[in-house]
Amino acid sequence: MQKIKVSTSSEYEILIEKGIRLKLREILPKREDCKYIVLTDENVDKLYGRKLFESLSKYNLIKYVLKPGENSKSFEELQKFLEFMAQKDINANDVLIAFGGGVIGDFGGFAAGVYRRGIDYIQLPTTLLSQVDSSVGGKTAVNLNEGKNLVGLFKQPIAVYCDPEYFKTLEDRDFSSGVGEAIKYGVLFDKNLFEELSRGIDKNQDLSNIVKRCVELKRDVVEADEYDNGKRQLLNLGHTIAHAIEIKSEYEITHGRAVAIGMAIMARACNKIGIFKGDISDIENCLEKNNLPTKTKFNIDELFELIERDKKRRGSYINEILIEDIGSCNLKKFSFGELKELIKKGMK
């Protein structure tokens, strides 16, 4: 078992091991008179719900199941879930388990942060994307019609349990979505990780070490900038464009696949303005080797009406991430006019 300690406003451990889902009986925190409310979605429940409840039969478990997908991250669904917890008398001694991918983790963490002014929660991520990225660092949110993750808060989990065995049942597009986020960490910080991913990975490999490396990289950033005021903004590489693509596609294009497009566009743009010193084909080939897209059918005007409402906006400007080389990126402040011209270059 690999253990990674995260030291933020609250400390917790991330445990990574194939088969750790079978050891939850031993590793869940022991509390007297404690209820565990398991939040999951229909897909995960169908595959793993019964086994989870059987393995934790000695615990007082309550289950709540959402429909899969970004559309469940709404205020309407949030209110239903909060009312359900109140009806089941979930209190400050109880623990929420977010059992699923990034949507469940975001939604569950936000619910845990606002219900009774905060209850503890555990991340039990089941997708590659959620294990390498979204389950770590305490960012939680729900969506508005105007944009993705526009309502959120920082709420650190008390533990994260990552089992790479879950990847075997992911659909190919969902697995590749997670690879997109892993490649992001290579482009940002780690050339060796990027080169490993450039050879292509598949869901039947043991990906424990890739999960571990991505988590270590994110841990280091989160510890340095927990509340996203500086270095942590680097983790948004490709995301400004990606969120617009997700919304425009009505979430048919998954998050990590949209991030791949966003990274490719920014890499081409940085190459054209002379900032990126490497070979642009290295990034495009890495993405394509992992069955990820590098272009979008949406035009700049369609995307920009959403980009201008991005949650990262700060007054009349937005911070964007520029790629200087594989493993080296920097933040730069852009007016929206300047950013539009930059993205245009990358879309050509």
UniProtKB/TrEMBL annotation:
GO terms for cellular component: cytoplasm. Its cofactor is Zn(2+); Co(2+); NAD(+). It is found in: Cytoplasm. Pathway: Metabolic intermediate biosynthesis; chorismate biosynthesis; chorismate from D-erythrose 4-phosphate and phosphoenolpyruvate: step 2/7. It catalyses: 7-phospho-2-dehydro-3-deoxy-D-arabino-heptonate = 3-dehydroquinate + phosphate. The keyword Magnesium does not apply. GO terms for biological process: amino acid biosynthetic process; aromatic amino acid family biosynthetic process; chorismate biosynthetic process. Residues 64-176 form the 3-dehydroquinate synthase N-terminal domain. Pfam families: DHQ_synthase, DHQS_C. Residues 178-312 form the 3-dehydroquinate synthase C-terminal domain. Its main location: cytoplasm. The keyword Translocase does not apply. Binds 1 divalent metal cation per subunit. Can use either Co(2+) or Zn(2+). SUPFAM superfamilies: Dehydroquinate synthase-like. Keywords: Amino-acid biosynthesis, Aromatic amino acid biosynthesis, Cobalt, Cytoplasm, Lyase, Metal-binding, NAD, Nucleotide-binding, Zinc. InterPro entries: Dehydroquinate_synthase, DHQ_synth_AroB, DHQ_synth_fam, DHQS/DOIS_N, DHQS_C. Its EC number is 4.2.3.4. One of its GO terms (molecular function) is 3-dehydroquinate synthase activity. Zn(2+) binds at residues 181, 239, 255. It is an enzyme of class 4 (lyase). Belongs to the sugar phosphate cyclases superfamily. Dehydroquinate synthase family. Catalyzes the conversion of 3-deoxy-D-arabino-heptulosonate 7-phosphate (DAHP) to dehydroquinate (DHQ). This is 3-dehydroquinate synthase.
